[in-house]
Amino acid sequence: MIARNPGCMRSMFVSDSVHLFSNMRHLGRIGLFVATIRKFLVNLKRHERALFDAPGQEWTIRYMSKQGQAVFSMVKPSESVRTLEVLGNDLFFLVEQFKSNPHVTRMSSYQLLVRLLREQCRVEPNAEAGEPKVLIKPNKEVPSDSLQNPSDPDASYDGHKGKGYQMQVAETYSRDETKKPLSLITEVIVEPAHHSDAEALIPLIEATQQRGFGPEEVLADSLYGGDENCQKARERSVEVISPVIGRPQENGLTLADFTGADEGTVRLCPQGHVPVKVKHKKGKHTAIFSPEVCTVCPRINDCPVKAGKKGSYLHYDEKAPRLAKRRAYEKTPAFQEVYRFRAGIEGTMSQLDRKTRVKHLRVRGLAAVSFCATLKAAGLNLLRAAAFRNSQEDGNLALQQRNPGLFGLFSVFKEQFSSLWADFNTFGCYFNPDQLFVTKMTV
Length: 443
Ligand code: SF4
Known about the structure:
This protein is of the alpha+beta class. It has 15 helices and 12 strands. It has 4 domains: 11-22 and 156-246 and 334-383, Ribonuclease H-like superfamily/Ribonuclease H (Nucleotidyltransferase, domain 5); 29-141, no CATH class; 255-330, no CATH class; 406-443. Helix 1 (29-47) packs antiparallel against helix 7 (108-120).
């Protein structure tokens, strides 16, 4: 994302997301069942010893002993389905056995059992056996926000990036290539990995606006720049520039070539013909062109109209003209010139990982991961600010070496002026003590 800051017309925001791995072990499904059941039993033993030691609980040895753990860690692929069924039945048994005990149901480890059962299993009534049947859901039916490890219940799963969290980052940048700019990270949002990037754009804009440096213009990749986001950003006086998701049309005419389509009513086709009728119904529009003009039109093969009973029909909805207009803009050199700056954020993501190891955090839980990631982003800002300051001072030193006389004169003037300004402030404060530490000037 790139955005223009009202305070500095050539300052931009860039944003992207990076995947974060918290300090949790990657568990397969068998490992997840075993770890969750074991966590509950350990807590039960610690807090409700009488229940843990009650007769008939000998099977808990399966989860608490080292031998039992070893059995589950060496399951052959051919036996994994059977093992999962056994684990599913144990899980169901535990949930049912303690569901009426308020001391147990209050335990967070019991709530994880219930969550695991809901997300990974389907319990069906079994009329023949009299007891419900526990079936393991196929992988594709398990939601992406499901439990990944009982030691970090907030972490979720993204099919593309894996298990953990993601960090949305926005930073400033400048299009002014004559000077080396100072880019600073302005906002960090950490969320579970399954969240869509599309949902992050508006919160990023709002968070920066609330702090008084909201953007005027945003460059983002296609996931952030859906039509809905563009409209919401415009309501907040922010222009989003991004490619439209999906493959652009290679050749031919598009809706953007029809006059009036962006206002909702097509008035002229690209060949200058007026539609014989335009219909509007529940946000859908249809422009009908005379078959006489379309059949002899030289652009009939390029045109998006479709032949129908009463003429050539052009169907479109509210957002189609806006998307067509953006696709047309994407092909222009002006768009390429602006959009090339978005690539700068990739360097920031790489720098965040190389310098702060943000992708491999040593904490767990959304709050701790968010706190750590924010601190690391702040640390990168400090590094960048220091490097920028050093580069400025190096530049001044080089200039000073080239013009020693001029700089000597400037230093004398600066000292005198600073001294005068300090006297003036002291004089002002004598009459207005409230301003004592407020009025400052750096020369
Ligand atoms: S095919 Fe019909 S609607 Fe399309 S450009 Fe030609 S005349 Fe216009």
